[in-house]
């Protein structure tokens, strides 16, 4: 800690991070051990976070992330979308295909930003807000591959006809961004994605990651 930072706020944020990393919640004793502070401090931190609905405790006394984080989370999509747009515009214009940023939302893949090329005679119509299962389409499959640590050596995923007949997709996951599972991809009306598109999508995903850091 430095003179310019708050120890109490730091501990509170660490509590939220610890709770976010577990599906079963943590007890006061477990939090005390992980934070390296006494139980009284943990009780105070939890009481404050509960007042803001950021933490809840079940009947067994285990603390979990509260629904209040959802209100904060709603502001994440606009920030991520704004950061990604320059890279998406460049990608769409470069390869002549609709580019998109997709984030994992539960069991679904949710398109949060879409950019269409300006110079093509035709392209796939795609809209922000489009939702589909993570297991279908290049965008969702890229996210799942990164989650499993099973991404192929090229670093991108290719699909054909899984979401729209005649359309092919290429997508690369966002790697190294804490708290975000997402991918950058393109969708085009071709039988097979051209060889240069996959590496270009990987580059665009890296550009988005850098913009988010």
UniProtKB/TrEMBL annotation:
Coiled coil where? none
CDD domains registered for this protein in UniProt: HTH_ARSR (cd00090)
Q: Which PROSITE patterns match?
A: HTH_ICLR, ICLR_ED
Q: What is this protein called?
A: Helix-turn-helix domain-containing protein
Show where the HTH iclR-type domain sits: 6-67
The IclR-ED domain covers 68-213
Q: What is the residue range of the signal peptide feature?
A: none
InterPro entries tied to this protein: ArsR-like_HTH, GAF-like_dom_sf, HTH_MetabolicPath_Reg, Tscrpt_reg_IclR_C, Tscrpt_reg_IclR_N, WH-like_DNA-bd_sf, WH_DNA-bd_sf
Q: Name one Pfam family in it.
A: IclR_C
Q: Which UniProt keywords apply?
A: DNA-binding, Transcription, Transcription regulation
Phosphoprotein as UniProt keyword? no
Please name the source species.
Streptomyces pyxinae
Question: The organism sits in which domain of life?
Answer: Bacteria
């Amino acid at each position: 800690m430095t003179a310019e930072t708050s120890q109490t706020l730091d501990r509170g944020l660490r509590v939220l991070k610890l709770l976010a990393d577990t599906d079963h919640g943590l007890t006061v004793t477990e939090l005390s051990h992980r934070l390296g502070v006494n139980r009284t401090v943990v009780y105070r931190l939890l009481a404050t976070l509960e007042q803001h609905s950021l933490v809840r405790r079940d009947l067994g006394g285990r603390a979990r992330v509260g629904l209040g984080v959802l209100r904060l989370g709603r502001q994440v999509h606009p920030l991520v979308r704004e950061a990604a747009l320059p890279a998406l515009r460049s990608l769409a214009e470069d390869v002549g295909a609709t580019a998109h940023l997709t984030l994992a939302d539960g069991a679904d893949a949710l398109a949060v930003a879409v950019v269409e090329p300006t110079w093509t005679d035709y392209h796939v119509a795609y809209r922000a807000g489009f939702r589909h299962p993570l297991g279908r389409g290049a965008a969702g499959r890229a996210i799942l591959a990164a989650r499993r640590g099973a991404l192929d050596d090229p670093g991108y995923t290719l699909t054909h006809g899984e979401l729209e007949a005649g359309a092919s997709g290429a997508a690369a996951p966002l790697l190294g961004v804490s708290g975000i599972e997402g991918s950058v991809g393109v969708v085009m009306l071709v039988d097979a994605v051209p060889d240069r598109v996959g590496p270009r999508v990987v580059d665009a995903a890296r550009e988005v990651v850098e913009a988010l850091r």
